[in-house]
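Before the break, one more example. Copy the sequence into your notebook; we will annotate it together after we see the structure.
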Amino acid sequence: MIGGKENKGEEPRTKVQKETSEPLSILRTFIELINKEKPKIAVVTTASSQGPTMFEEYKKAFSQIGEQTLEHIHHNVREEILNDDSAKQIQEVDAIFFTGGDQLKLTTLYGGTNFLLSLKQRYINDHLVIGGTSAGAMAMSTPMIFAGNEDVQQITGEIKITTGLEFLKDVCVDTHFVDRSRMIRMAQVIASNPTCIGVGLEEDTAVIIKNGIEAEVSGSGVLVLVEGDKITKSNTETAGKDGKHAVSIRNLVIHLLAKGNTFIIKQNNPPHI
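Here is what the structure looks like once it is written out:
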């Protein structure tokens, strides 16, 4: 999962990235994780309103890394997914990459489809690498933020969440995290769901998840890990009951992690059997 604006071979954009970035580093890691010569990759641009342009950008970037076969998957309406063979395509690729755009479009279009079922089955049973950047990363998690920007994030009840594609359970992923000042909105989500952890990814920064719970930071920036199980008091439960208030949370735990740092995703909520 990538925090957005990963380096695609261009000159790094910020001072921090110029000092710590390696061109194509994150996309190169994605290819290495596939661990196959000449892999077949499906690039899903559904979240974007400019699918063909987005696909060409990644086609150009991946071509600088090595030889792969890229397939383009893009849907505009749910009916297309119900009637095409994209679920079959999923059976024939070695990796999937979800681009940025609108994460709510991904959950709205793919939820409950054979496409998502096939993807989940291969994710669980096969060596299938799934990547996502920006909205494509946020959609991997549950709960998933879909509304509430820096202008309203400090007000209780202004952050909107729904069920994501649920490749990770009880994990909320937010992207462009440092660059767009999204700390407070993540804090609200975790305060209202203290079982969850929050993973805030700076741009050109990624987290690699293996075996469902083993996480490692990659890229040039910072991962902000937010834990809510030690919260003693918050006012998030009063949202909307007696007017709007600035959010207040006690004993929220925050970690700042950089490239090479690892952590284990807590299993505070055992699966139902």
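Residues 51-63 form the longest helix (13 residues). The longest strand covers residues 205-210. Try to locate both features in your own notes.
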